[in-house]
Amino acid sequence: MKKFKRHLVTSALPYANGPVHIGHLAGVYIPSDIYTRYLRLKGEDVISVCGSDEHGVPITIKARKEGVTPQDVVDKYHGMIKEAFQSFGISFDIYSRTTSKTHSETASNFFKKLYDQGEFIEQTTMQYYDEEAKAFLADRYITGTCPHCQNDRAYGDQCENCGTTLNATDLINPKSTITGSDPVRKETKHWFLPLDKHEPMLRKWILEQHKEWKPNVYGQCKSWLDLGLQPRAVSRDLDWGIPVPVEGAEGKVLYVWFDAPIGYISATKELTPDWEKYWKQDDTKLVCFIGKDNIVFHCIVFPAMLEAHGDYILPENVPANEFLNLEGDKISTSRNWAVWLHEYLEEFPGKEDVLRYVLCANAPETKDNDFTWKDFQARNNNELVAILGNFVNRALVLTDKYYEGVVPELGELTDYDKDTLKELPAIKLSLESNVEHYRFREALKDAMAIARLGNKYLADTEPWKVIKTDPERVKTTLNIALQLTANLATAIEPFLPFTSAKLLKMLSIEKPEWESLGSSSLISAGHKIGKAELLFEKIEDSVVEQQMAKLERSKLENAENEALQNIASQKENVTFDDFGKMDIRVSTIVAAEKVAKTKKLLKLTVDTGIDTRDIVSGIAEHYKPEELVGKQVLVLVNLAPRTLKGIESNGMILMGSDASGKLVLLSPQDQVNSGAIVG
C-alpha cells in the first residue's frame, strides 16, 4: 500500500439555499469528521476543507420567491450552516464559500487555463427563451406537463411526482415560471468539456487502479463509463455566478457543477500558503467524502477537469454513502420532511454525541437506511446509557467510594485479568482497519467493544462483593477498569468528541496519543481522578412523541399546501370540442418490462382495442412489471408519439397519485372490452 506524507480531506459543499439535515450528516459530514479526527489523533499531516456552494439556479429561484437578492439568500444560509457544523463538532480546518474573492479568481483561472489549452468545445444549441423577461431559461425556470405521469407541475429537468429525469423539450405545454408566458427556442453558445476525450484515462484510473472503492461508487462509475461519456456544458445563461472569463461570453456564468468542486482548491488556498503541497504533490492522499447523488461529479467530471488542467493530483478515494430516509419516507426539504440540524441543537442541548452516535451506527454505507425516533431513543437508552455510560459510571464511582478517587496500585494479575487486557490491542487493530477502509459503523462497534468489555469485566469480578473479603484484589480490578476507561476515552474521540472530552476531564488526564491505545498503563497509580458525572441520560417516550407530532404537522401542512396548489393550478376551462379531440380508451396491458439502464421507466405493451402498441411510462419505482400484466388502464391513444431511450412511445397511460405521492393507475371498476371509449 502506498505511503502518503500528508492527507487532504474534502467534504461535499452543502448548497446554501437551506439548512443542513440528518441526511447530509449521515451521508457526508459525520464520516468525513470521523476520518479526519482519527488521522489527527494519529499525528498525521491532515487538513479538512469544506464550504458553502452558493451559485446555481435554485438559489435564484429562492431569492425571487422571497423578494431578496441571491446574495441575501446565501449569506443567511452560509451563516446558519457554518454555525450548526461548529456546534455539532464537525471539525473542518476551514469552512469557506464559493462567493469569496479567492474562489472567484481560482475558478476563473482554472477555466481560462483549460480554455487557453483548447480543452473545451464551443457549441451553439437551442434553448428555451422568455421573450418577456428577455432571458434564457434554466431547466428549473420551466414547468409543464410530464409526458409520463401527466403531472402538470413538472420541471424542465425532472418530474418530482414520478421522479423521471427530463429534458425541458420533453415537457408538454412548457411555461416560463418567471412570466408565465410560452417560451420560444433560441440559439445560444456554450462551452463543453469533452468527457469522451478523457474516457480512456478514467477507465484505467477507476476500473483498473481503484477496484478497492466502495461497490456503490465503483458500480455507478462503471455504469456511466459503459454507457459512453458525452461532452458536458460548463457554462450557463444566468446572471448569478462566476462570469465566464472569455470574450463574447456576456450574460454567461460557470455552470455550478464546474464551479463548486474548484471550491475545495480555493478553500485550501485560503487556509494555507502551502496549499500547493496538498493539491500538486503525489505524496498527498486526497479523499473526497460525498453523497451518492454526487458520485458522477466527483469520480468522472472533477477528475476529468483536474486531468485536463494538468497540475493537480486525483482523488485516491471517494467514499460515498447511500441515502438516509426518515420514518420510512424520503427526506424532502420542500415538504419539510426532515430533522434539521439547527433545530436538533436547540431542542436537544448537550446531546450532540447522541445524534452523532445514532447516525454513525445506522449509517447508509452500503444501502439506503431509515432514521426513526424510536431507534434514536433505543440506541441512546440501551447502548449509550446502559453500556458506555454504565461502565464509566461504575468504574469511577467505585474508585471514589473505596479509594477517595485515587487510582489504586496494580497487584498480581489473574489469567482473566490478562485475557481482558489482551483484547485491547486487537480492538485497536480492528478499529484502525475499519476506519482506514471507510467502514465507520464497524469502527464504532470496535470503540464500543471496550465499554462492553469493561461492563463484562466488572460484572464477572464483582468488586462490590470482593471488597468485603479481599480488598487487595479490588485494587487490581479497579486499576484495570480505569485503564479500560482511559482507552475508551481515546477510542471514542473520532465518533463522540464531546463525550471523550468529558471523560478525559473526569479522569483528570490529557488526551492520550493514538499509539498508546491498547496500553494497560494509560493512567498511573496514585493519580487523583475527578468526580463521576452522568455522560448520558435516558430519553423518555414523551420526547419521541413530541418529535413524531412535529413530523405529523409537516404531513398535514403538506397536504393542505397540495390542496391549495391544486385549486390554484386548476386549468383553464376548455370547450366540449377541445375535450372531444382526446381519444381515451380502456386498454389492457399485455406485457411489461424495465427499460434497460434506467431506474424509473417501464416499457408497456397495451391492447387498445384498435391496435397493440408500446408506451414508455415512468412508474418502475411504483409497480413491478409482473404486477401490471393483465391490468386494464385508461390510455390517451391520440397523443403524438415521443421517443424515449430509443423506444417510440405511442400514447399516455392516465394516472393519479395518492396521499403519499405513489402513482396509481386509473382503471375501470368492472372489466370491460379493450377499446371502450372514455368520454
Shape: globular
**Which CATH class of the largest domain?**
Alpha Beta
Number of domains: 5
Q: CATH superfamily assignment of the largest domain?
A: HUPs
Proportion of helical residues: 40-55%
Reported CATH architecture of the largest domain: 3-Layer(aba) Sandwich
What amount of the residues lies in strands?
Answer: 15-25%
Report the span from N to C terminus.
70 Å
The overall pLDDT average reads 92
| Count of discrete alpha- or pi-helical segments spanning 4 or more residues | 21
Count the beta strands.
27
Uncertain segments are: none
Secondary-structure-based class equals alpha+beta
The Cα radius of gyration reads 30 Å
Q: Give the CATH topology of the largest domain.
A: Rossmann fold
